[in-house]
Automatic annotation (TrEMBL):
Residues 4-232 form the ABC transporter domain. One of its GO terms (molecular function) is ATP binding. InterPro entries: AAA+_ATPase, ABC_transporter-like_ATP-bd, ABC_transporter-like_CS, ABC_transporter_ATP-binding, DrrA1/2-like_C, P-loop_NTPase. The keyword Aminoacyl-tRNA synthetase does not apply. The keyword Nucleotide-binding applies. This is ATP-binding cassette domain-containing protein. Belongs to the ABC transporter superfamily. It comes from Chitinophaga rhizophila. Keywords: ATP-binding, Nodulation, Nucleotide-binding, Transport.
Amino acid sequence: MNLIEIRHLRKDYATHKAVDDISFVIPKGSIFGLLGPNGAGKTTLLRMITGIFYPDSGDILFNGRPFDPHTDIHSIGYMPEERGLYKKMKVGEQALYLAQLKGMSERDAKARIKYWFDKFEINSWYNKKVEELSKGMQQKVQFISTVMHNPDLLILDEPFSGLDPINANLIKQEIFDLSKNGTTIIFSTHRMEQVEEICDRIVLVNQGKKLLDGEVKQIKQDFKQHLYRVGFGVMPNFAQVATYHFSIVNTEPLAYTVKLSEGSTTNDILAHFINHNIPITSFHEILPSINEVFIQQVTSITGHAPQSATANEPAVASSNS
């Protein structure tokens, strides 16, 4: 079943279409990547899914029924890229306050705070003010505040920003654990290697339009270019390798990258080397990375590769809602 269904969603600002007739679904328990260059419409989509913005047209279904921000918001945890902690407030008091905003009783909230503070080994921070913490420390507090109420939907916008590798790995493991326990996660980032490592499915948007969506594994298969890396114990000479079954596109020490010709199969590649008594030490298909698919799709629309630029979506105050 799908936790979220987006149907023909539109949102216009004064000068441009931020979201232009976008539809996709997010299965329950999945880790779903929302991708796109700056200004593509990602933040506007997230703010509509959380009820911060209302769409101009289209529908958002939550658990199979129309999304109601007033009731469904307690089932959502949202960690925006612009963090929303109160600098002058103590960490423990803030966590308690935010948990109660999500409808938790004081008793339950304190129990969950203890659980998460123990888990992240940050009990010593309880009476520290947020402004006394480093950016990475604040990030951990923000994450805890977002997940304390056990949301059905967890939205993470650049969750690893400011974290060192150890704490980034800690948060990543928590994301996997939450997903295994049934939480549906929307993961928005510009770091394509993180998407490939973490996400089950993705949607790619650009200039307010959806370019593609689906399972990460299937997308990589759909955009493969029939490239293979063949490793050797001893490098063969070119005359031995030449054949109509494939062409050589790259050479490296003791390996070739070859492109399979139309009508040929991988068996033809292997048979060619075997027939020439060339020992093969390794053989595998080279699939495109999500970053390569991302660049290819955006470039095909815009005529140039995506660049880091200031997002042209209007800013709103940070929110933990």
